[in-house]
Amino acid sequence: MIARALLALTVLCLTGCVATKPDHPFRAEVSQNASIRWQRADTTLHCEAVFARAVDGQVQVHLFKGTPKPILSLDLAPYGNLTASGKLARFGWSGPFTSAPVPLLGWAHLLRAYQACATWPDGQSELHAPNVRTAITIVSGKPEVISVASELARETITAVFTP
Questions:
Q1: What CATH number did the domain enclosing 42 receive?
Q2: Does this model's pTM top 0.85?
């Protein structure tokens, strides 16, 4: 009886750990490299990033700092679901973009701005959300700079895209 209970518990635990595959694999229509500057309090991080956008509006960003494995990977679905993984995401997170935890708030807004700027005209724009200001510069139909300042997380994140 105890053996069956342990077996059932083990199967239940392992089933909960199984990763699910998305309905369709991500296929980038456009990808862009960028340099990232992230600052919070007395901490500053400089790293490289690869942003990608799919035809359906799904976007991803992967941040790299001296290794081939990303220190942060973010995926934003067209319907607003955000998934975060990697060292900077600690244990990872997935849920609605609007419910992102404070440590991921600035990153969520950065990715949302990248997702939205696909249809914006050239020039400079500012978006304001509660406690978050996002500035975007678009040149020749592509983002040149996206900068996010989050009062709540007390951080700024700037992505400067390479031509």
A1: 2.50.20.10
A2: no
